[in-house]
């Protein structure tokens, strides 16, 4: 889309806050790291164990969807910004056109990393692994003819897949930037030879 924007901005003065913290700590945001995994893993555990714990499908469905919604909000609005310095959202302009905005934290002038390696690993591992588990659950529900669970599993795939897609676009950039990067790289390789 030509309406996609990649902005290199400081996210709520995160650079100043991180530079003041001790560099000894591998995980700079332990609460964010905990909640990044807590809601995701809790939704999966409740899905696996809910038939053993209760016979009420509605209670299980509501609990799982609430956990998935809390996860979507926490990852999109808090943990992505704190743990890896990425943020995305959609805004509609006055003409009614939708614009997707993907942000990445500015690199600090000293060239130091503002997010830790451990937090980055936790973030991306949780972001990639959990949607894959929900896809496996979707095929399992489909092939075992558990149609009532299929709606819950589709919500898991959609909510966690949307965050995965948004953060991959933040990390990699828009398609036009990828095309220009590939063209520049191939041009440099051609000139070298």
From TrEMBL:
GO terms for biological process: protein secretion; vesicle-mediated transport. Keywords: Membrane, Transmembrane, Transmembrane helix. The keyword tRNA-binding does not apply. The chain crosses the membrane at residues 30-49, 55-75, 122-143, 149-168. It is a multi-pass membrane protein. It comes from the Eukaryota. One of its GO terms (cellular component) is Golgi membrane. It is found in: Membrane. Pfam families: DUF846 (PF05832). The keyword Transmembrane applies. Belongs to the TVP23 family. PANTHER family: GOLGI APPARATUS MEMBRANE PROTEIN TVP23, GOLGI APPARATUS MEMBRANE PROTEIN TVP23 HOMOLOG B. This is Golgi apparatus membrane protein TVP23 homolog. It comes from Nipponia nippon. The lineage of its organism: Eukaryota, Metazoa, Chordata, Craniata, Vertebrata.
């Amino acid at each position: 889309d030509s309406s996609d924007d990649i902005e290199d901005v400081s996210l709520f003065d995160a650079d100043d806050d991180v530079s003041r913290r001790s560099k000894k700590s591998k995980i700079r945001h332990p609460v964010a790291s905990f909640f990044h995994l807590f809601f995701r893993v809790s939704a999966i555990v409740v899905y696996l164990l809910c038939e053993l714990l209760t016979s009420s499908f509605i209670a299980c469905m509501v609990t799982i969807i609430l956990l998935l919604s809390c996860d979507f909000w926490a990852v999109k609005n808090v943990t992505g910004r704190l743990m890896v310095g990425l943020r995305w959202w959609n805004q509609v302009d006055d003409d009614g056109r939708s614009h997707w905005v993907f942000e990445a934290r500015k690199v600090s002038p000293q060239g130091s990393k503002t997010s830790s390696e451990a937090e980055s690993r936790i973030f991306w591992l949780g972001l990639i692994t959990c949607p894959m588990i929900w896809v496996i659950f979707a095929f399992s529900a489909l092939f075992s003819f558990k149609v009532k669970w299929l709606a819950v599993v589709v919500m898991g795939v959609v909510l966690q897949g949307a965050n995965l897609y948004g953060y991959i676009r933040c990390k990699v950039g828009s398609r036009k930037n990828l095309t220009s990067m590939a063209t520049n790289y191939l041009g440099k390789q051609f000139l070298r030879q």
